Amino acid sequence: MSNPSVVLQRVARDFADAIPQADVEAQHSRWKAGIGPFEEENQIEMILDELPADRAGEIETEVPYPGNQQRCDLVVETDGVSLPIEAKLLRFRLDNGNIDPNMYKSVFSPFPERSSSSMLTDAKKLVESGFDQPTGLLGLYYEKNDEEYEQLRGEKVAEKFQRDVSYWYDIDIETAAIKPFDGLQHPHHQHGAVITWLLSDD
Fold this sequence. Notes:
6-stranded mixed beta sheet, Transcriptional regulator
């Protein structure tokens, strides 16, 4: 049986390897070329299409939460491990390179809203769900070239998110992986990382 942390490391590596492949033909009708401007659901679909068949076959999408109508983005079934994972974009820059005024809230807000959830509230939702523990989170992080805010770089975002989960909730969390990717087409979303976290209510 695989260790859940190892599974999250492998998923992060597989996604990071697939993103440049998905980027090659990623054309948006409104934004500049590249995978970066696409929304989370579209990016996940494009990434999964580029995974080797055996890896993609381990991942089920839009899996219902036990006992309710909500759906979990990904569930990885491998080597005796069933690992539910919620995914979020960590893209703090718009298509034109300016700061996205809504992204910070969609990642770090601890306040649940009826129509949407943040990555932070997703952590609480996963741990309180009927899914077996542990569970995971996956962030698709894009970094602007020469990003002037050091706090918006991948390692800093991973560290802050881990601190915020610990601050707001009684949840054990560790950063499982930060797997970089680069060489993408978009002028402001050329590189980044796939970041995964392991959650547990132990």
